[in-house]
């Protein structure tokens, strides 16, 4: 009985003293921190959030309106959930500057994209790893290296136009531009000859696209699963190519300047290979995706806009528009052609003269940026515009928000290449098709050369007219801008290809 009595007393004391101790501890400790000021908005349903709504808008070509509606409702900072993660949408030049330069922000792509491309690509790496891998890639893509490859690009463009455009009455532009972009990448970045391996890589690459921007549900018959399977096929082909290139380098049968993979394999740090095989494979796959999509979209929509702007097209090709700013730019492609012998390839110096054509390309990128938006991740709490972006959340920004802002670009729906003539430059962090800051697209110079070389031969040898009526002359995002029926055009051949 005594033992029971003692136990009862101890229990009573514990019941009494425990709340008292908790009370005194709370009195002695500082008050809990105030609740973080989260941006307005809703995270929506678990996992799905607003992902399906955004994807629907992209496929209906209303994504710009979807983004602007959120901005009109919540302001330039709002919370939502995209592709399985809590997200903060930020908009405007100030937001772009923060995204590009804030030291605390780390890159963050949708889980679907990282899983399909590979987790050691430069979009995912941070700190020293990012600087190391990006620096290695720039060994191949810096301007003084790209100038060496103008002749190779010229050869691919002329071969493509002669095989797939010459003699045709109508063509679908977008599929052909995708083929051309793939051929340039396969030659320049992978060093692949035409044949079975190249065709297998092209097939696997097409399958990867389906799963890049999807809800990352790995179940049979989902787009994500199909993307993963295609990625596995592509990676096996790239891995075999990497091993083949390594053997050729070891036996002195190739040069580091032959292609991107050979360049990356040849880089050393203290006698050891600078990049791992996984990093070479992941970043080769990334280069395939990024370089293919941006170039194909840009060239397709340049043709689309020029079909409706004969004055600008004439100024590029023959100098018939007297309203352009200076006589030496009236006929840039005609003047370049006059200085070439039949069959002679373009040079870096020729490309540098194509100023009007690049303004046309810039205006196309402004109106139809190939990428709707990109992501960053907050490793720590980040304060912006009076709101807290919590640690672990992702941040989404979109170039079209500033590109189509009438306060930045007057009459933004009007195609006006003179916006980029050097005297009417937009405000900083407003024209951002290639991103900005330390993570600006490393392939920007290569894309410029490929675009201008292709434009030179197109405007010199062809004229084109859109086949579809205005009601069908539209496009959707899947996830890249995709014109209706591939943008069919009727061709007029004005000069034979040499």
From TrEMBL:
Q: Which domain of life is it from?
A: Eukaryota
Which GO terms of type biological process are on file? sterol metabolic process
Report whether Iron shows up as a keyword of the record.
yes
Positions with biased composition (Basic and acidic residues): 327-341
Q: Which family does it belong to?
A: Belongs to the cytochrome P450 family.
Question: Which keywords appear in this protein's UniProt record, sorted alphabetically?
Answer: Heme, Iron, Membrane, Metal-binding, Monooxygenase, Oxidoreductase, Transmembrane, Transmembrane helix
Which Pfam family, just one, is annotated for this protein?
Answer: p450
Q: Which cofactor does it need?
A: heme
Query: Which residues does the annotated region (Disordered) include?
Result: 320-341
Mind telling me what this protein is named?
Cytochrome P450
Which organism was this protein described from? Answer: Oryza nivara
Q: Enumerate the GO terms in the molecular function aspect.
A: heme binding; iron ion binding; monooxygenase activity; oxidoreductase activity, acting on paired donors, with incorporation or reduction of molecular oxygen
Residues annotated as binding heme: 441
